[in-house]
Amino acid sequence: MNRRLFSMVGAIAFCIAAGGVTLAQQPQFFRIGTGGTAGTYYPIGGLIANAISNPPGSRPCEEGGSCGVPGLIATAVSSNGSVANVNAIAGGSLESGFSQSDVATWAHAGTGIWEDREPVEKLRAIANLYPETIHLVASAQSGIDSVDDLAGKQVSLDEPGSGTLVDARIILEAYGLSEDDVEAHYLKPDQAAERMRDGAMDAFFFVGGFPAGAIAELASQHDITLVPISGEEAATVRDEYTFFAENIVPAGTYDGVEEEVTTLSVGAQWITSADQPEDLIYGITKALWNDNTRKLLDAGHQKGQQITLETALDGVGIPLHPGAEKFYREAGVLSE
């Protein structure tokens, strides 16, 4: 009887142990909300997702395999952009996402565009990534050379839920304009570019790293003007909203744009929820900054080269996730 009981206990213990091993080998999925497929968020999100992933059964990093988080399968998910990503993280339908620094800060504090909404107090930062350039693209045939010239024109401000729409409204206001002063449309940049090629759109806003795919494709087929956002009006924006900085688009970035253009930029940041496990975010942050990821970012996109550990905390206006904070302290980026 005792022997049978001992055997049963042993069998149960073995099953529990085996089950634990099986559970440990189960993949863990981690989504990164990005933006439209024609923008910069999406390809950068794909690069990062590939870098931090290490599916079950992959070869270890030291054997030439994945250098990501063991068992993690990360995916870049196309979305409407910053505001949509914040909402999705708050609602639990995304584990993480990209956001403009201004949108993330306002959402966390319940200020700015979030002042009439519940603050997203659990919003946390993983890293600042790169500066996002505010593009104001106009058809050369439209005669638009300044923001003032947008009055009465067909202008796309980007789709609802995007950070671009937020910034476009701020810029219009700085120049004494509003959505009522233009023929406003709310389209993704590739849709706006298509209408511009057809002669049905005079200008559109887009916030993203240059060169942006939709704009580069448009410029190769249609004469465009990259409208400067500078002078006293831009200085007013920078003074009122400290997330903005002066930004230069180099000459030749887009076909036909032969001179550098002064505009504004905001930081692109990778954000998550305080509810995500500390060990997971620590591993993800560590994987973001290893040598393998560095090679992928440098080779994968021009903006990838600007994603550096030295600038990982620049412009971060919300608390760091404890897992990310732990890594940055260990790396000496964040002091006591």
Automatic annotation (TrEMBL):
Superkingdom of origin organism: Bacteria
Pfam families the record matches: NMT1_3 (PF16868)
Record bears the keyword Chaperone: no
Keywords, ordered alphabetically: Signal
Signal peptide (residue range): 1-24
Protein name: TAXI family TRAP transporter solute-binding subunit
